[in-house]
Specification:
Blueprint: E1 6-14, E2 22-29, E3 34-38, H1 45-53, E4 57-65, E5 68-69, H2 75-79, H3 89-96, H4 98-102, H5 113-125, E6 131-135, H6 143-158, E7 162-166, H7 170-175, E8 179-184, E9 187-192, H8 194-199, H9 201-207
Parallel strand pairs: 3-7, 3-8, 6-7
Antiparallel strand pairs: 1-2, 1-4, 4-5, 8-9
Length: about 210
């Protein structure tokens, strides 16, 4: 069986010489799909994403993109693993987030929390990434705006961009996830499709409020 498009395989590591925060953690996402990392506070969700992005000192494991080992690349080098065709990017961003076109002459301070989150996603898309990494994109926004952002994230994935997302709103995030990871204490506690995790009685009881 071939590798997923992006995989952080058996990752163990931390910051400097401190105790490992991740322990044999594996996170992957296929091309054009959405992978979501959820779990309690302090579970290592954002740390797992940082490890994939090259911002963690790995003691074990590797990161591969399209079958190529990129473990040795710096975060700056990984940031430019993009597609070649950048034509129409701004038009695509405006199509996904029409409000950004309407507000394009306003400063960030004049935008709502939801609009600022859209700006963050739009700016990331301007680099034409092959993988879009989102760390709690719905933080601080209303339920209505959260639903709108998730709809846009689905549309981004449909363009062929792989999306790796850390999210506190676990139930809603798993509803749009092709692949879901529930992390506890730096390890994979549960791994399955988003649909299967939502149906798992233990996941529902322990992490989704029943």
């Amino acid at each position: 069986m071939s590798d997923p498009f992006l995989i952080g395989d058996s990752l163990s590591g931390g910051y400097g010489r401190g105790v490992d925060i991740l322990r044999s953690c594996t996170i992957s996402v296929n091309e054009g799909q959405i992978a979501v990392i959820v779990g309690p506070n302090g579970a290592g969700k954002s740390t797992a994403m940082k490890a994939v992005f090259g911002m963690l000192d790995l003691h074990e494991g590797s990161v591969r993109l399209g079958g190529e080992d990129i473990s040795h690349l710096s975060p700056q080098d990984r940031a430019f693993l993009r597609r070649d065709d950048i034509s129409g990017t701004l038009a695509q961003v405006y199509e996904l987030f029409p409000v950004l076109k309407e507000k394009r002459r306003q400063t960030a301070g004049e935008l709502s929390g939801g609009q600022r989150q859209q700006v963050a996603v739009g700016r990331a898309l301007m680099t034409q990434p092959r993988v879009l990494m989102l760390d709690e994109p719905t933080a601080g926004v209303s339920p209505v705006v959260m639903d709108e952002l998730f709809d846009r994230i689905i549309e981004v994935a449909r363009t062929g961009i792989s999306i790796l997302m850390v999210e506190q709103n676990a139930r809603q995030a798993l509803e749009i996830a092709d692949r879901g990871y529930v992390m506890v204490q730096g390890q994979n506690a549960f791994t399955d499709t988003g649909e299967a995790l939502l149906a798992d009685p233990e996941v529902r009881r322990s992490f989704l409020g029943g």
